Amino acid sequence: MFTINNNSHIRVRTKCPKCGNYSYHSFHNVYNYTTGKYTERLCNKCYYNGTSKYELTIQSYISTFYSGKLIRNSRKVIQPLELDLYYPEKKIAIEFNGNYWHDENHKPRDYHYNKFKDCLNSCITLVSIFENEWKLKKIHIKNYLKDLFNGKDNSLSFNDDHTL
User: Fold this and answer.
1) CA distance 60 to 7
2) Which of 49, 48, 28 is nearest to 39 (CA)?
3) Nearest to residue 141, comparing CAs of 57, 51, 53?
4) What integer pLDDT is reported at residue 163 of this predicted model?
5) pLDDT, tens digit, for every residue of 136-153?
6) What letters, b where the CB count within 10 A reaches 16 and e where it falls short, cover 106-141?
7) How confident is the model at residue 130 (pLDDT cuts 50, 70, 90)?
8) Is residue 163 helix, strand or coil?
9) E strands, 19-122, where?
């Protein structure tokens, strides 16, 4: 038996439960430190290109006011973590966190914080959008994104009763 810490970026080879092919994943994406359970991971071929309908909606919205370069689902910017949408000229990253895959059963407790820290260390503004917030405050989030890309000062925060 070996000991590994939560910040490990060790790559492990896993077998895809769908097609049986092997691929590599970061250990923290395969093992849940909170529950002590391993998660089966799809290979890159079977994984639905890594894009959710919400990411596509957000990307489409941003394209209405910003036409600069976009890097999608990259693990090269803050290795080995993935950024859903990254706009390098603006140094803005957008991360959409769905309720199911981004709960503590699927991600380590400090996953989102570590991604935020890695972006901060790379001078990247990371906007993490959680599915519940998107559904409740979509118009406010859209306004925030537009202001952010246009260099306007704007803040966005949520309180417990979801009112602004």
Assistant:
1) 33
2) 28
3) 57
4) 46
5) 999 999 999 999 999 887
6) bbbeebbebbbebbeeeebebbbbbbebbeebeeeb
7) confident
8) coil
9) 22-26, 31-32, 37-38, 71-78, 81-87, 92-97
Q: What is the distance between the alpha carbons of residues 32 and 105, in angstroms, rounded to a whole number?
A: 7
CA distance 83 to 146: 19
**DSSP SS3 for 108:** coil
Q: Which neighbouring-strand residues pair with 92?
A: 87, 125
Cα 152 to Cα 65: distance, rounded to the nearest angstrom: 14
Q: Kindly indicate the confidence band of residue 29, based on its pLDDT and cuts at 50, 70 and 90.
A: low
Q: Which of 43, 51, 42 is nearest to 70 (CA)?
A: 51
- Rounded to an integer, the average pLDDT of 20-35 is 70
Write phi, then psi, for 76 (nearest 5 degrees).
Answer: -100, -20
